[in-house]
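[agent] plan:
  1. take the single chain provided in the ticket
  2. run structure prediction with default settings
  3. attach structure tokens to the ticket
  4. add a short note for the reviewer (M.T.)
[agent] executing step 1
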Amino acid sequence: MSAAKRVQQWATFARTWHVFDCKWQDPYQSANLIKKYLMGLHKPIYHPMNDCGDVVVCINSRDIALRGDEWRKRAYFHHTGYPGGASWTLAWEVHNKDPTMIIKKAVYRAMQGNLQRRHTMQRLFIYPGEEIPDDVKQNVTNQIRQLRLVPTRLDHIPEEEVQKFPKVMEYPSDYVLK
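[agent] step 2 finished; step 3 output follows
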């Protein structure tokens, strides 16, 4: 086997580290994308019995976006294992306690039917902010594109750009908003 083929084969089976920015992303749509990389569905050598998935690092999980009033209506089930230990917790309460939990639960649920999902979840690293430990940051070699573009906040647009933007009408100087 030539050296080029050997390197190509090594690169095919090697675990790549990907980073995904969760800022303003729907965790349930993002979970389907993250699942593909964790399980190795994006690789041509994928087989359900083959553990060829990659490692995914999620950042900014504190800034996820749920649709509509999902924050108030979506509830998560938890059971302690003891009689009467069942509880339902609303999404905003879960997110306040642990900002990484909603992403973790969404990815775990997206891998339904995968017999190795507990083992696969160990390759998912979730951080609430943009800070990643240096030992993890050294391994990251790829970035997963966000599903939804994050719009620029109005207070982050430079004043010169705001002044250059065409106006539909000019308000009179004595105009008062009521």
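[agent] step 4 note for reviewer: The chain has one domain: 11-164.
[agent] ticket updated
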